[in-house]
Specification:
Oligomer: single chain
Shape: globular
Radius of gyration: 14 Å
Number of domains: 1
Helix content: 25-40%
Order of helices and strands: EEHEHHEH
Number of strands: 4
Length: about 110
């Protein structure tokens, strides 16, 4: 990523909870936490990548190393799919809130 004048792209707060599923890293975020990350990235003014994780994306990344690498290098990946939450429960992990694009429109 291009970093001008010593400013770095958005980085999530260190205290946000991270997890992994099938080799893909993501953040476990409440809606207020996710919105706060969006706001901070906008205030930062540097280009940042946000991505969502759902079953279709996990399936594609499992078969596409470039996509997997890109997702793991993305500043913030959040859950957008009930299938991921179900998968986490099957793995014995706490389900995480999911946030779809439609959640952000009235």
């Amino acid at each position: 990523m291009n970093e001008e004048k010593g400013q770095s792209p958005f980085r999530p707060q260190a205290d946000l909870e991270r997890d992994r599923i099938l080799g893909l890293s993501f953040y476990r975020l409440s809606r207020p936490q996710l919105l706060s990350c969006f706001e901070e990235a906008l205030r930062n003014g540097k280009q940042s990548r946000f991505a969502y994780l759902n079953i279709a994306v996990v399936n594609q990344a499992f078969h596409n190393r470039q996509l997997s690498t890109l997702l793991n290098e993305t500043e913030l990946v959040y859950i957008d799919g009930a299938g991921i939450s179900w998968g986490l429960r099957i793995l014995g992990k706490e389900a995480t809130p999911r946030h779809t694009g439609a959640d952000f429109f009235p």
